[in-house]
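Usage

Read records sequentially. Each one opens with the input sequence:
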Amino acid sequence: MSILEMMNEEVIIPARYKAMTAEQMETRIKEIKESFGTRLYIPGHHYQKDEVIQFADDTGDSLRLAQLSANNNLAEYIVFCGVHFMAETADILTNENQKVILPDMRAGCSMADMANLHQTEKAWVALQELFGDTMIPLTYVNSTAEIKAFCGKHEGATVTSSNAQKMVQWALTQKERIFFLPDQHLGRNTAFDLGIPLEEMAIWDPEVEKLEYDGDINRIKVILWKGYCSVHEKFTVENIKQMRNEYPGITIIVHPECSHEVVQLADFAGSTNYIIDKLKEAEPNSIWAVGTEMNLVNRLAKIHDNKQVYSLNPNMCPCLTMNRIDLPHLLWALESIEKGNPINEITVDKEIARYAVLAVERMLERA
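and closes with the structure output:
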């Protein structure tokens, strides 16, 4: 579902929530959490605002939170503080008696929206004409349920930023080539780390329905969907040069959704959990520049006040869609549950869910 479709479906938040003070909203949220007890579960993604994350029962990346939701059989209501595709994954993995709620339907993901099912099916047909039955699709979990289902239907799987290498290695034992959606940077960085040269990677541009590649197409091992994270793509080589000039001895760590050039110049690259763990293990008084979402960077700087922690791009804004979830929307979602009329329930079509689960399970079996 695109951000536009979500906005069209959304019920507008009542004005009274915007008039409440933060203290009033926090008090009400605590009251509702206490009254529902284990019947209510609030997972919060690492990129959420502090005002929201304070009420999370668990924090983590998208897949971990979906798995925790699935394992929580006591919760009748799962109020997912993240973005739309994460709530979809939670709905796919939880049972039919559990309701997954997204506090603000505008909390989408621009990367996930860069690959829709219609585009993907057209690309698959065109690429099969070029390569025959030599491809297996892999999709980053930062994708819609429909794209996960497409991969499940075509013998493919999902990947996370932490297990992408294992999944790419597995995929290459199944077929000669990989079709990697929707983030070209994670696909490129992962394949390169496994020894696949850039000359053996091509890009599929869904807008013009064209394969971008110069040379003999028989050399191609990895076909990358032309998608990206609008946050991580904004970290640049110039940012790295500037930080190294300003802070001699600085250590630079970035997320693999960053461009290949940035990842190659960084000292470390890894998933959100990898970044969190590296900062935790770092020596006191060490200096770090972190190339990931600003809310998390600011939180890490507060937690590790015995170290110097900066954003790799000081002018970076937080993820706009993640920041749609705020205190008013969280309270609105909780009060709607309290009144017996939950808003913004996320439900995935059963047939889509069936194939999407296949893609997720293939990953969980191997990674």
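Summary fields computed downstream for this record:
- Residues 350-366 form the longest helix (17 residues).
- The longest strand covers residues 135-140.
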